[in-house]
Specification:
The complex is a heterodimer of chains A (about 240) and B (about 170). With about 240 residues, chain A is an alpha+beta fold. Helices cover about 45% and strands about 20% of the residues of chain A. Chain A has a domain at about 125-235: 2-Layer Sandwich (Phosphorylase Kinase, domain 1). In chain A, the strands form two sheets. A six-stranded antiparallel beta sheet of chain A has the order 2-3-4-7-6-5, with helices on both faces. In chain A, helix 1 runs parallel beside helix 3, helix 2 (about 20-25) packs across helix 3 and helix 5 (about 85-100) runs antiparallel to helix 6 (about 105-120). Chain B has helices at about 5-25, 30-45, 55-75, 85, 100-110, 115-125, 130-135, 140-170. Chain B is globular, with a radius of gyration of 18 Å. Classes of the chains: A alpha+beta (about 240), B mainly alpha (about 170).
Chain lengths: ~240, ~170
């Protein structure tokens, strides 16, 4: 392979795996050095292109979408892929909500969507990054909320949409079995408590917001609910 | 099958960083880039049902972003300003403080758009020659030539800078 062809090839694709290109480099130290230098430049270029991304950009994008599409109707999975215990839990949740449906028809789809969100999205929200209390409070600020003491390990804190309702979903505790906390606007009415064989939920009602806490371990759920009751406050 | 909302959230979380970075390099202004990214994702939300192949999601978003950026020029005829007044090297600084980063930013900005854009698509977004050709509506050979020239010019600029730095320091 002549010099020009070699250079054209590696300059177009510095990490080429083309056998002829590799052979040409092996046979010619000048080509090999040129390619080596080019790969170094490429690595530096890759690094230079990785400009910082605003840490809250994803949340802003989700928030913007919710704001712009408040009246949009949200579809639901027709054949949800849920484990059996989830299906049972969902059916019991729905049964509990039935009494409420007479008063608030929105509630049934709401809890269905809460479970769907926990099932489909929650796992992806836990990235392993450390979420500080300050970061959580900056997100809570959109709801007028603030937490004034550490709650233990914060696994994730992301804005999300539950059945068309803007909320903040926080996951706490054990990454393998997290407790979910949904910060909800006050205008959404939720039942006072939920309980099934596998999943339990509690509601903290504040003057300016509602907080839904959902988990599978009763003791943990109670502890987190107590902590939130003591340390989470909302203002208008 | 995920419902539309979960599909959208997944799309946002998976691709917002790459899309934003590409927008900043394309537009050269962080604030305008963020606006265009917002428009892009809103447009994506409205058209989400048309995204059939989820493996092609990134390319689909880039197509929308380039269209939204073009619309920006249709909507408003901006005054011509010097690039140096719009974005500075420091404004795009990365947090790692790599020694060559600033020099690279300046060097990339010296490339003509026709060379810079395919280069960024390849290095930042990981697009193949075929994918870049499709995005830019060029044939693949033209794309490969532009990539070759882009790196060739970049190498030249960086070498000149090092020599100039050497003289200055010497």
């Amino acid at each position: 392979m002549d010099e020009l062809t070699f250079r054209r090839h590696v300059l177009a694709n510095p990490f080429s795996q083309d056998v002829q290109v590799i052979q040409a480099a092996h046979q010619d130290p000048v080509k090999q050095q040129f390619w080596h230098d080019l790969k170094q430049q490429e690595l530096a270029l890759q690094q230079a292109l990785q400009i910082d991304v605003p840490h809250d950009l994803a949340d802003k994008l989700l928030w913007e979408q919710v704001s712009q599409t408040e009246t949009a109707s949200f579809s639901h999975p027709t054949t949800p892929r849920r484990p059996l215990w989830f299906a049972i839990a969902a059916s019991i949740l729905l049964a509990i909500s039935v009494g409420w449906v007479n008063f608030n028809s929105k509630e049934r789809t709401f809890y269905d969507d809460v479970i769907a969100h926990i099932e489909h999205v929650s796992e992806h929200e836990i990235t392993g990054d450390v979420i500080t209390l300050a970061a959580l409070n900056s997100k809570l600020a959109k709801f007028g909320g603030v937490i004034n003491a550490a709650l233990g390990k914060i696994l994730s804190a992301n804005y999300c949409v539950i059945d068309g309702v803007e909320s903040l979903h926080v996951q706490l505790g054990d990454p393998d079995n997290p407790t979910s906390v949904f910060i909800l606007p006050k205008d959404l009415t939720v039942t006072e408590s939920l309980a099934t064989n596998h999943i339990q939920g509690k509601v903290l009602e504040y003057q300016f917001a509602n907080v839904l806490i959902i988990g599978t371990v009763s003791q943990t759920l109670s502890q987190i609910t107590e902590q939130l009751a003591q340390h989470l406050a909302f203002s208008s | 099958m995920m419902n539309k909302q979960y599909k959208y959230e997944t799309l946002v979380r998976a691709f917002h960083a790459d899309i934003y970075r590409y927008a900043v390099w394309l537009i050269r202004d962080k604030s305008i880039a963020e606006d265009v990214v917002q428009e892009t994702f809103l447009r994506a939300w409205k058209s989400l049902d048309s995204l059939q192949d989820e493996h092609a999601a990134k390319a689909w978003l880039i197509t929308i972003l380039r269209r939204e950026n073009a619309r920006r020029f249709e909507r408003k005829q901006f005054d011509l300003v010097d690039i140096d007044d719009v974005v500075t090297v420091d404004e795009r600084a990365t947090s790692d403080g790599h020694a060559d980063t600033h020099a690279f930013h300046a060097a990339i900005d010296q490339l003509a758009d026709e060379y810079k854009e395919p280069l960024i698509m390849q290095v930042l977004l990981g697009f193949s020659g075929e994918e870049i050709a499709q995005q830019l509506q060029l044939n693949k050979n033209t794309v490969m030539t532009r990539l070759f020239r882009a790196r060739s010019q970049l190498k030249h600029i960086m070498t000149q800078d090092k020599q100039a730095g050497g003289f200055a320091n010497g």
